[in-house]
UniProtKB/TrEMBL annotation:
Assigned keywords, A-Z: Glycoprotein, Membrane, Receptor, Signal, Transmembrane, Transmembrane helix
InterPro entries: Leu-rich_rpt (IPR001611), LRR_dom_sf (IPR032675), RLP23-like (IPR046956)
Domain of life: Eukaryota
Alphabetized SUPFAM superfamilies for the sequence: L domain-like (SSF52058)
Protein's name according to its UniProt entry: Receptor-like protein EIX2
Amino acid sequence: MFDLSENHFSGSVPAWIGDKLSNLVILSLRSNNFDGHIPHNICDLQFLQNLDLAHNNISGVIPKCFNNLSAMATTNKTDKKVYGDSFYRFSWSALLVLKGREDEYGSTLGLLTSMDLSANSLTGEIPKEIGSLVGLVSLNFSGNLLTGNIPDSIGNIELMESLDLSMNRLNGEIPPSFSNLNFLNHFNVSYNNLTGQIPTSTQLQSFDNLSYVGNHHYGPPLTKNYASKGIPTDVANNGSSSEGNKVNSLYVSIALGFVMGFWGVVAPLFFIRSWRIAYYRMLDHICGKLYVFWATMGM
């Protein structure tokens, strides 16, 4: 394990990590000031099960060579690790951020496989090669500048429990293959430019609107049925007519209020002298009463 998280380290992510620390299982550089690109040497860490580079200033694209991370590309997890003919059991613990929450994992650490690149400045498309990492339990690319479609290959990661692609610039539809993600219990694609109907599956329909807000989706589990361009169907059907009725009603109400107020109060005072005199006498009487009241209170 190599953990430098929550410090003030700066500069590029060291390329020598992939060369000199070839047996790494956990690499966490979370919450620092690292910048530059993700070095391709990271792809040489064949035993790596947990990669956390979140909350830095890392830019560039997500390396396609991530599919070389062998330990993430297998579903055969164990709490023992193999090196040659010898085995060792994970006897230490680590803090990992999974499903949006930081927890300490100990004896089960060897069963968890995660990748967190969130809150950086990564650009370009999500490489389809990510779909070969079928052992991933958690994948978080949120809070970047990623564009393009969500790769259909991510649906191959059938053991995935947590997937967060929110707050990017992704477009297109949620791939139909996401119906295969039967173990999802944390899912977020909010605040992108996604469109189309949400694929039908037990898991995807179990999340609330917050998982999809800021897009142009329609269909369950959204509370409103959205048309193909993201316009609610109840508005699309009644459309401009209902909106026009609301505007017309507003103008009519304003006009009636003006007429009633002017002709019911202002006009009689202006044209009828006796009303005008009585009105000002009443105001003078009220002002006198208030003056006496406040003077008495002051004494």
